[in-house]
Design a protein that fits this description.
With 253 residues, the chain is α/β, with parallel strands linked by helices. Helices cover 43% and strands 15% of the residues. Strand 2, helix 2 and strand 3 form a beta-alpha-beta unit.
Amino acid sequence: MRSKIVAGNWKMNLSQIQAQELCREVNRMNIGPGIEVYIFPPMLYVSDCRNQSTAVKVGAQNAYPEDNGAYTGEVSMWQLKEAGVEAVLIGHSERREYFRESNEFLKQKLDAALVHGIKPFFCCGEPLEIRENGTFLDYVKKQLEESVFHLSAEAFKQIVIAYEPIWAIGTGRTASTEQAEEMHVAIRSRISEQYGKEIAENTSVLYGGSCNPGNAQSLFACENVDGGLIGGASLKASEFAVLVSEETWTILN
């Protein structure tokens, strides 16, 4: 049975004091039974959050694939592991767009994370022009094929997939339930072709595109949507609390 997951990506936001307070609030939330909650704070605050966290898991927003070396400003996967980090975002649309991270480079990151026992949250998704020209299914499948599908079946079982419709991130637009389900079905189908039905059915595929208390129930209720990678709503304790609450997930299930 695949995990239900709500993950908060704080991006480059909050002061240290704000991050500590938000972390405390998240740990006090009424988390629904069986729901796994992750937070991905800015790198500077990872240790603070890790030291405070009891009910949630702490991940990092980024890492470099090499273990050591002259890579000024970077942090390696083994350094994250030493700091107690449990997960890492790989392939987020902002890393792809602003820092030109290629599918090959993301493949290297994925391999490094798995070597050091850090759970990768692999992000994939299409920009507006790809959505509008109708090639979005092939576009996302190619991201998986070039960065993920070299893994063995056992290694693949360790990862979480997060679908991000880039045209819906920070724009106020959200994929309809039909659009979200269509892509999640396509992703799971492609995983099944590569690794078999059992692994596909046990892979968590999250939705990440302006997910908030107003649309989460309908999105999470989709058969193939297993939770969300949450951006702006994860910075507001009152909103994030709704997304992880027992009430929300009881209604859905």
